[in-house]
Amino acid sequence: MQDSTVAVLDLYAEGGFEMDESFRDLPDHVAAELEFLYLLLFRQAEALRDGDAQAQSRFAALRLRLLDEQLGRWVDPFAAATAASAQTAFYRELAGLTEAFVDAEKAAAAGP
User: Fold this and answer.
1) Chain mean pLDDT for the chain
2) Distance from first CA to last CA of the chain, Å, rounded?
3) Is the distance from CB of 102 to CB of 66 less than 8 angstroms?
4) Which of left, alpha, beta for 111 (phi over 0: left; psi -120 to 50: alpha)?
């Protein structure tokens, strides 16, 4: 495993995210990182609902780190390569939507 894979595993551990044994791709696969992003958003929303400012801040910080150090660093070239090599419009559109979503999350996580 490369340094980025080990780093994302550390982030997962901090966020309470465990890889399912049946998942056969690397831990830094786009599907895993997007699932972790969902988990962080969900837990941040739960903390907001429950009035737990400390947990909300913790999950927001992990979300920002994921976007700054991992997913947000490589999603744009990944989406461009996927769109360029996709043989169907479905995957071209999916690449664009993934890129737009992650870029929007990066902007939201960075704050005003």
Assistant:
1) 92
2) 36
3) no
4) left
Contact 79, 95 (CB under 8 A): yes
For residue 63 the two structure tokens come to 């979300």
Name the CATH superfamily, with its identifier, for domain 3-110.
Answer: TorD-like (1.10.3480.10)
Chain segment 24-54, per-residue pLDDT in tens: 888 889 999 999 999 999 999 999 999 999 9
Domain ranges of the chain: 3-110
Assess contact for 86 and 64: CB atoms under 8 A.
Answer: no
Q: Specify burial of residue 77 (Cβ count, 10 A radius: 0-12, 13-18, 19+).
A: exposed
What is the rounded CA–CA span in Å between residue 82 and residue 13?
Answer: 29
Q: What's the DSSP call for residue 88?
A: S
